[in-house]
């Protein structure tokens, strides 16, 4: 269980590579990375959006398929090509009048470190690097790309009384 008052969470920010997709990525003949996705993560993301939780994608990647995937799940805050994530994080907080304690961030590697050091509830997948694990309030039992997003979203929605609380939960 996440050791944080999850009722405070107003937004969950996810890195992509190593969190929403597995850390090993096949390459297309064109050189384009072909990321994996987890169906249960997808279900949880679209449900969280429908339940009013702001879901955010914050990635250094620029693959259009990532944009399309998360737009189709209802995510509107998708930040691609972020070489320094803390700058985008600060702009995001200001745009929605949020505070660090309102944010759960799930990352797995050094580019996530600055944001995870600031946000209220830093979390990571089971296979995150040691530096990220050392600053996380919660380390999921699931590896990146294998249900770690579902894990944290479900905990937040349950804590907020929004998991299986209405007909919204029973469809896509």
From TrEMBL:
Pfam families: Hydrolase_3. GO terms for molecular function: hydrolase activity, acting on ester bonds; metal ion binding; N-acylneuraminate cytidylyltransferase activity. Its cofactor is Mg(2+). Keywords: Hydrolase, Magnesium, Metal-binding. Mg(2+) binds at residues 15, 108. The keyword Magnesium applies. The keyword Cell membrane does not apply. Belongs to the KdsC family. This is 3-deoxy-D-manno-octulosonate 8-phosphate phosphatase. It comes from Xylanibacter rarus.
């Amino acid at each position: 269980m996440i050791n944080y008052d999850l009722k405070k969470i107003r937004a969950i920010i996810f890195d992509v590579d190593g969190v929403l997709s597995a850390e090993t990525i096949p390459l297309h003949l064109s050189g384009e990375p072909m990321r994996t996705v987890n169906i249960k993560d997808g279900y949880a993301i679209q449900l969280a959006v429908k339940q009013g939780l702001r879901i955010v994608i914050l990635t250094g990647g620029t693959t259009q398929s990532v944009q399309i995937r998360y737009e189709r799940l209802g995510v509107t805050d998708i930040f691609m090509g972020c070489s320094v994530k803390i700058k985008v994080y600060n702009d995001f907080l200001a745009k929605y009048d949020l505070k660090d304690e309102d944010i759960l961030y799930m990352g797995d590697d050094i580019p996530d470190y600055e944001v995870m050091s600031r946000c209220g509830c830093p979390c990571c997948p089971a296979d995150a690097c040691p530096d990220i694990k050392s600053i996380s309030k919660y380390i999921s039992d699931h590896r990146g790309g294998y249900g770690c997003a579902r894990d944290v979203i479900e905990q937040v929605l349950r804590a907020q009384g929004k998991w299986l609380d209405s007909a919204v939960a029973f469809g896509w």
